Amino acid sequence: MSGINALLAEYAAHLREYDAWFARCMEQHGDRIACAAGCAACCRALFDISLLDAALLHEGLRRLPPSLQDEVRGRAAPILARLQERWPDFAHPYTLNHLAEEHWEVPEEDDTPCPFLGADQRCLVYAFRPATCRLHGLPNVDHCGEIFQRDSCSRNFLERDAAAEPGLRWHFREAFQAEARLYRRFAAQLLGSPEVQGDTFIAAVPFIDFAALGAPRGCGNL
């Protein structure tokens, strides 16, 4: 397995740790958590993901049947077109970091559906989804009490502040540091320097040519 392929497999394994944390929260507090398959309330709006997340998501797209790949691209294309109307220099590889952050922030009321949502409102590439999709819905509070994300889905923990629930805490600081190290390795291999930041929007992912950036086609067994 090439260096990039091996790194993507390692990142996929790291993201499964996020899934395991969320699953434990569901086991302990399932009566207070509304998250379930088919609920796509949080799969809306434009939000940025890392280029590492985009590479993994791109691999998930590659594994879909051609007809579903076409459907995803068909839904993503008009979103990308709107983004390019707003930012004419938003071109391949569709990274945002050359723009000042205040320029690429999107309105909070944006309700753009994720192009990877199927007709049944389930994610077509669930096993390849970005880190933020795996962590959204519950607060991200470290065991030490440090809050990385206070907000939770408005449908969860209706009767209390979820961020104050000790049972939801996890080693987020350690996990996020590990994720950052993985990104730096990815940037060094794909972009030439561990210091290069690369963020994009999910709608741009189907149109990023990772092979042109130096990545091999396919990322092996994840």
- Main β-sheet description: 2 strands, antiparallel
Helix content: 25-40%
Give the overall average pLDDT: 90
The domain tally reads: 1
Which range does the strand content fall in? under 5%
The arrangement of helices and strands along the chain is: HEHHHHEEHE
Kindly report the oligomeric state of this protein.
single chain
Any idea what the radius of gyration is? 18 Å
Strand order of the largest sheet: 1-4
**How many DSSP helices?**
6
* First-to-last CA distance: 11 Å
List low-pLDDT spans.
Answer: none
Shape summary:
globular
> What structural class should be given to the helix and strand makeup?
mainly alpha
β-strand number: 4
Describe the protein.
This protein is mostly helical and 222 residues long. It has one domain. Helix content is 40%, strand content 5%. The chain has helices spanning 3-29, 51-62, 66-86, 101-104, 131-135, 172-190, and strands at 48-50, 140-141, 147-149, 199-201. The strands form two sheets. It has a two-stranded antiparallel sheet with strand order 1-4. A two-stranded antiparallel sheet has the order 2-3. Strand 2 and strand 3 form a beta hairpin. Helix 1 runs antiparallel to helix 6 (172-190). It starts with a helix and ends in a 21-residue tail after the last strand.
